[in-house]
């Protein structure tokens, strides 16, 4: 009886392993969106971070609007709550930096990022997914704060287009600041990442025009506050919303809408590549 020679089939590995992507913007966006949905699914199962973010925004509006509002002065004599709300919208975008750093650090500590790095996906996708997910959370938080602002007497008197532009500038700043949080979460491991981010948040927030007009500060301090990226976004949105307290003689104040775009773009150009470089340099 003749035995047929056995055909040797080369081992190509498991059939369900996807091919390694060739890279590029498309892969980064597709993989990033997948990881964005992962973060949203986690929030659905554990809504505590979302609830805390929403409650924090409401409490800080009520605290500054009612507890401290009577002691605040708006340069042109306008209503302080109308002056406050655009600055408050802007300031809460900064307070999301610590949340982003904490989420990145948690994924590092649990080994989640190491597993992602072993998969055939874009190097930037993990980071893009985190930044976009936090942007979506911030959009929900901002919507709640707008509603609270309307309840406490704030009103936007600009056109619908100006209102949309103001919201866009606020979220653009949040997206740029997300990359600051991502970078801090990658390079400052453990509790120091969150502590470092939160330590930066309050001085940067208070040294701006978010809560008080820079004209009421000492001259040298007002110059520093005017050049704070938060001040540009707060001033630009006050202008677009039609709220009081926009005035200022500094060039950066007179061109606040322009600078509200320039500052976030500059932050993205610096911290996006830094974050990708730090991610690739993680020890596997």
Descriptive account of the structure:
The chain is mainly alpha-helical. It is built from 12 helices and no strands. The protein has one domain. It is a multi-pass membrane protein. The chain crosses the membrane at residues 47-68, 88-106, 127-157, 163-188, 200-221, 256-279. It is found in: Cell membrane; Membrane.
Question: What's the topology here?
Answer:
Layout: H1 25-45, H2 48-67, H3 80-94, H4 96-109, H5 112-117, H6 125-151, H7 160-187, H8 191-206, H9 219-226, H10 229-241, H11 251-254, H12 256-280
Task: Calculate the terminal CA-CA distance, rounded to whole Å.
Answer: 55 Å
The percent range for strand residues is under 5%
**Strands, count:** 0
Which class best fits the helix and strand makeup? mainly alpha
Shape: globular
The sequence of SSEs as H and E is: HHHHHHHHHHHH
Low-confidence stretches: 1-23
Quick rundown:
It is a multi-pass membrane protein. With about 280 residues, this protein is mainly alpha-helical. The chain has helices at about 25-45, 50-65, 80-95, 95-110, 110-115, 125-150, 160-185, 190-205, 220-225, 230-240, 250-255, 255-280.
Key attributes of the depicted protein:
mainly alpha; disordered N terminus; 284 residues
């Amino acid at each position: 009886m003749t035995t047929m020679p056995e055909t040797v089939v080369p081992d190509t590995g498991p059939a369900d392993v996807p091919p390694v992507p060739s890279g590029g913007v498309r892969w980064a966006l597709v993989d990033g969106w997948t990881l964005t949905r992962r973060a949203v699914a986690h929030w659905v199962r554990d809504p505590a971070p979302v609830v805390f973010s929403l409650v924090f925004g409401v409490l800080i509006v009520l605290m500054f609007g009612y507890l401290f509002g009577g002691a605040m002065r708006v340069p042109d004599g306008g209503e302080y709550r109308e002056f406050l709300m655009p600055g408050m919208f802007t300031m809460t975008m900064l307070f999301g930096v610590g949340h982003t750093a904490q989420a990145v650090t948690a994924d590092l500590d649990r080994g989640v990022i190491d597993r992602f790095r072993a998969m055939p996906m874009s190097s930037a996708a993990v980071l893009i997914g985190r930044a976009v997910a936090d942007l979506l959370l911030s959009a929900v938080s901002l919507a709640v704060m707008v509603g609270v602002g309307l309840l406490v007497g704030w009103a936007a008197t600009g056109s619908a287009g100006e209102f949309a532009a103001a919201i866009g500038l606020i979220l653009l700043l949040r997206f740029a600041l997300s990359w600051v949080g991502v970078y801090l979460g990658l390079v400052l491991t453990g509790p120091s990442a969150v502590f470092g981010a939160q330590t930066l948040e309050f001085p940067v927030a208070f040294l701006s025009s978010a809560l008080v007009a820079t004209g009421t500060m000492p001259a040298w301090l007002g110059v520093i506050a005017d050049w704070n990226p938060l001040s540009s976004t707060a001033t630009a949105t006050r202008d677009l919303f039609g709220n009081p307290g926009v005035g200022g003689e500094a060039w950066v104040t007179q061109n606040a809408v322009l600078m509200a775009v320039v500052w976030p773009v500059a932050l993205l150009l610096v911290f996006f590549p830094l974050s990708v470089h730090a991610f690739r340099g993680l020890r596997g």
